[in-house]
Amino acid sequence: MSQARLQNRVLPTGDIIAAPFRGAFTGNRGILGFDEHGRLGTSRWKHQHWIVCTLVHPRGRYHGPQPERGWTPLFFLDEAVALAAGHRPCAYCRPEAYRAWVNAWTRAFGEKSGHKEMDATLHAARVTRNRTQIRHQALLRDLPDHAFVLVQDQAHLVLDRFLYPFRSGTYGNGISRNPLDNDPVTVLTPRPTLDVLTAGYELQTRLE
After folding, report:
1. pTM for the model
2. pLDDT over threshold 50, residue 1
3. Which of 15, 16, 119, 189 could form a disulfide with 84 if both were Cys (CB 3.0 to 4.6 A apart)?
4. Under 8 Å between Cβ of 22 and 65
5. Torsion over CA: 75, 79, 85, 91 (sign)
């Protein structure tokens, strides 16, 4: 089965599609599995530990689209997309990023939490039981860099003083956010993740 046919590319809106764009990160939500046409079934997760992983295992093995141990890799253009979809850094393959995440989480919420507590908090803020992404309203001026918002039904990355549209697995040209800064916008990135970004968690996108 061709990897390009597999339904395993994740969008900032939380949708998982079959698309040819390459991802800088992979992620794990458990064993989801594909049918003979490369399509997922109804499940979009098997546990609450939605993580962002490197493409290559720490021991040097390439995960591939269907690893032998059966977990179902999902692919993200970059970490900003993964965070918008509700994931957080993997402690095993990205220990430095995970420690930075925990430190920012502690600054944001006033106490250190283990991965189970963090994942439970994230899960309640990222998706409903019927697999619908949880979204909320906020003033654009109050959002940190690397948040994702909807502008005219299009996902946009907030970065510096610009909004970058996400289309077909890449970013379009940035537009000035100034005219919209005082307006409420629909936010895709979960609230706890926004707090972690505001508290100083650093990541890089394809734009940097």
Report:
1. 0.93
2. no
3. 189
4. no
5. positive
Cα angle at 124 between 180 and 8, to 5 degrees?
Answer: 80
Question: Contacts from 153-158 at CB under 8 Å and sequence distance 24+?
Answer: 155/11, 155/12, 155/13, 155/84, 155/188, 157/12, 157/80, 157/205, 157/207
User: Are the C-beta atoms of 164 and 147 separated by less than 8 Å?
Assistant: no
pLDDT for res 88: 98
Phi-psi region of 152 (alpha: psi -120 to 50; beta: other; left: phi over 0): left
Q: In this structure, what DSSP letter does residue 98 have?
A: H
The alpha helices in the chain, defined as continuous H runs, are 79-84, 95-109, 115-126, 191-198
Of residues 59 and 52, more confidently modeled: 52
In this predicted model, what pLDDT tens digit does every residue of 118-155 receive, in sequence order? 999 999 999 998 999 999 999 999 999 999 999 999 99
In angstroms, the CA 25 to CA 83 distance is 11
Assigned token pair, 120: 């439970």
